[in-house]
Amino acid sequence: MRCGWALACALLLSAMSVSAEPLQELRVLSEHAVEGMRGGNLSGLARCGDALWAVSDRDDDQIYRLDTTAQVWQAQSMRIDVPLVPDTGLPWGLRSRNWAASFVRGGDLDFEGISCDSAGNRYLVSEGHAAVLQVPLIGPANWLKISPLMVREARASGMLLHFNAIFEGLAINPAGDQMWLAAERQSRGLLLIKRQQTVWDCDGRCVLLSEGGKEMQPPQFPHARAVNRDFSDIALFNGKLFTLERNAFQICRRDAQTAKVEQCWSYAAELLQTNRRYSQNYGLEEALIIDANGAWVGVDNNFGPRADGEVRPIVWRFAAPEGGWDVRP
């Protein structure tokens, strides 16, 4: 590459992801179609005790417990009565576009992630409103009181500026007093808020990471090209934050306090096999759970068929990398 402007070259190169060596590939152990999700579009997964829970970004009034006793999983719906959404500081333009889109796609709240604390409380993040709904084991659902500083700081850092590119995932610690949120793209980012008596607020700065730019799709992707960096879900395991980066077809382990990348693993070799490919020109994986033995990864295929004709949401079980998730390269 020849550049006449040194600064322009530096910015271009920094916006592209360049890997010195191939990432270790994760291996699929099993694959499970999911039946019974009214709105389809599996957009988040969480483990609460021994149960797996899922959300759909098309369903505002229910979440799903997954019966995993058979090869094909059955989604069992649980109704939730959602109170009026609070004003979180998102500008009127973004909120009105989301409201208009809900008449076409369904789902004004656009739930994109689910997480659980050790008490069994479930937390759902609404992309449409940049809000978090708590669904306790007993009692009504309620919206967390989150300081408007979070949205202001995120937008000042270049995040939450584009329609359908707000919060795409969340993770909460077992004690239920720290929460991480993942901004999807343009710019993608990670934020941390903490419970302080009745309000969730920043402890210092909310924003751990904000980055734009593009990176190359993996070579297995048909007609691979440079696409926007993104996060499509996050998970907390052993004090580390794991990010699902669907456009790069990888899972990365990060420091939970700084968001610095420590190691990444690719799942491209498995999910880009011919029979598992979808026609969309970007990644579709939107749900992540990490545990000691591996990872659960779920796809939001928008009812679009993959190459073998399957149209139901799919959840894959990946084996943990050799040496475990704490292994150093």
Task: Please characterize this protein's 3D structure.
The protein has 329 residues and is mainly beta. The chain has a single domain (23-319), classed as Neuraminidase (6 Propeller), CATH 2.120.10. Helices cover 11% and strands 40% of the residues. It is built from 4 helices and 24 strands. It has helices spanning 6-14, 92-105, 149-156, 268-271, and strands at residues 24-25, 28-35, 42-48, 51-56, 62-67, 73-79, 111-116, 122-126, 131-135, 142-143, 167-172, 178-183, 188-196, 199-201, 207-211, 214-216, 226-228, 233-237, 240-245, 250-255, 261-266, 285-291, 294-299, 314-319. The strands form 5 sheets. It has an 8-stranded mixed β-sheet, with no helix packed on it. A hairpin with a 4-residue loop joins strand 19 and strand 20. The chain is globular and about 45 Å long. This is Esterase-like activity of phytase family protein. It holds the Pfam family Phytase-like. It comes from Pseudomonas granadensis. Residues 1-20 form the signal peptide. InterPro entries: Phytase-like_dom (IPR027372).
